[in-house]
Design brief:
flat, 15 helices
Length: 310
């Protein structure tokens, strides 16, 4: 007599196909990317696209006038740039302008103003903040004309020096790079001041009060407590200020036009001269690409600083 075999019962849902984890993860990634896809498309069209086209032009001999077709010249534009004394002079002046006006001027003065305004009275904070921010919101061309009137031979600075019986000079002729650096500091310090004011307000008062009770002076508190606690804000401010300073054009153009004899011609002005005054679009674009590389190197350095935890 045979033993009856019990029918096998399939578990519920065993007949349906189970999606692989890889396919499910891909589907979730696509769904999450849908909301940001319009912004991504706009970035590709208006940022990555022009940068790619400029990178292509930099390897050609494209000219603004007098040329029917452009030809591919490889690295000739870059080799010509590094053999051009005017280009090397522009690189040096760009570094000087960036260090003086951004790394030293705007950063240091902005931090000093932010620290002083924390201890100042409300009327003083209102007046100083209003003056500094007004200089920041002025259009670049307007600020350039104001500083041109300040530094010119018959300008305000020399009038003050004459009143004090001190020697005066034509600042835009003798020290043009220092004049435009000061102008950029005057115009851009407000941004650093606002960044550092927000960072200083985030420091717990208990820490500074405890250090003050322990006998730490103002400089020791600034060096050992304040600066380490706002390190990330310092890195962010330096990165944004440096990238903005590398691209300054209108301010210098209005004040000196890069002169005299190229003594204040930074890379943006050199690029403009080669591309639009001498009609060498390919060569000017190669210079612009080198300027983009310089900005990228600064960004990499600052991003590494931002990764450092306090």
């Amino acid at each position: 007599m045979s033993t009856p075999v019990a029918p096998q019962v399939r578990p519920p849902g065993s007949g349906t196909k189970v999606a692989s984890p890889r396919r499910g993860g891909l589907r979730r990634a696509v769904v999450r990317a849908l909301p940001v896809s319009p912004a991504l498309i706009l970035l590709v069209l208006f940022l990555a696209g022009p940068i790619g086209y400029c990178a292509y032009i930099a390897f050609t001999d494209l000219q603004l006038t007098g040329q029917a077709h452009a030809s591919f010249v490889g690295f000739d534009n870059f080799r010509a740039a590094f053999q051009d004394d005017a280009f090397l002079n522009a690189v040096w002046l760009t570094l000087v302008f960036t260090v003086l006006s951004s790394l030293v001027g705007q950063n240091t003065l902005g931090l000093a103003l932010a620290a002083l305004m924390q201890r100042a009275s409300k009327p003083v904070r209102t007046v100083v903040g209003g003056v500094v921010i007004t200089a920041w919101v002025l259009p670049e061309v307007v600020a350039g004309f104001l500083l041109y009137a300040f530094f010119r031979r018959e300008g305000t600075l020399n009038a003050i020096l004459d009143w004090l019986h001190l020697p005066s000079q034509n600042w835009l002729f003798t020290l043009p790079i220092l004049a435009v650096s000061f102008a950029n500091v005057w115009r851009g310090t407000a941004f650093s001041m606002l960044v550092y004011s927000a960072a200083l307000n985030e420091i717990p008062k208990e820490i500074t009060e405890a250090a003050e009770v322990d006998g730490a002076g103002g400089w020791r508190r600034m060096w050992h407590i304040t600066l380490p606690m706002i390190r990330r804000s310092i890195g962010t401010n330096l990165m944004l200020n440096t990238l903005q300073t590398l691209s300054v054009f209108g301010l210098i153009w209005v004040m000196t036009r890069g002169g005299p004899s190229g003594k204040s011609q930074t890379l943006p002005l050199f690029m403009y001269e080669q591309a639009f005054q001498k009609s060498m679009i390919g060569y000017g674009t190669a210079v612009a690409l080198l300027l983009l590389v310089v900005g990228s190197l600064f960004s990499v350095v600052y991003m590494r600083l931002l990764r450092t935890e306090v």
